[in-house]
Amino acid sequence: MAERRKITVVGAGNVGATCAQVLATRDYANVVLVDIKENLPQGKALDINQMGPVLGYEPSIVGSNGYEETAGSEIVVITAGLPRSPGMSRDDLVTTNEKIVGSVTQEVVAASPDAVIVVVSNPLDAMCHVAHGVSGFPKERVFGMAGILDTARFRTFIAWETGASVKDVTAVVLGGHGDQMVPVVSATAVGGVPLTKLVAQDRIDAMVERTRKGGGEIVNLLGTSAWYAPGAAAAQIVDAVALDEKRVLPCTALLEGEYGIDDLYMGVPVKLGAGGVEAIVELDLSEHERTWLQESAGAVRDVVGVLSA
Prior knowledge:
309 residues, six-stranded parallel beta sheet, 9 helices
């Protein structure tokens, strides 16, 4: 039997542990769950392993407080950092999480110099810049999870509004992972029928706004950030890369002229395969959507500008 590939998840909090749990159920990789808090990753790894006999997958998760166990990882998911609390914007996290993500990236590069890095820590777009700069990796191997999560929220609201199966809702959300993200209504359909033919404009506007504020809605309800959907979204990215699926999914990638945006990490559709981001897909946006995307880019640049030189 071929040796299993190795995937590392840094951060054994809610998002990281959920990502590790979902990957364990996929049953194709050994997962290393890393956290600086003593006993936390070991305990969560043991718990997830003991779920294996119930759900029918092989126990294959190791918890660690260091990076020795992670050596030679094919993919590293970085979820480390402070979560949002009520009243806190993603931007408020930038200074603290810059230090955490920078430090983690150094450890990751030393242990797994050929890895693909998937950033989940907030503020997501800025943390991608941090990981890319610290790692020195090519842009194809450093990108972030945001658009999959934001799109999942949009698809959920659309399914509820239309009474359709969420499986039949196609949508995409572009831009920064914040309140100025851009749900692309012109590319949204239910069973191939454009959303605009099914739902009144005021209801569409309400769903767009709820999607943009989706993370904050959960923070207000729970007192902390979401974790089930973000963890699953990160695992979907790992699947696409590890299994060379060539999936076209919305991720935070470094743009170099695409969509008229240069030298900025933004959420766009990308083709994911064994090399990481293998292509950036440019959609035909309406005039309004293109304007909103530029506004979102401006907001991301403001946050990135807070980063240390």
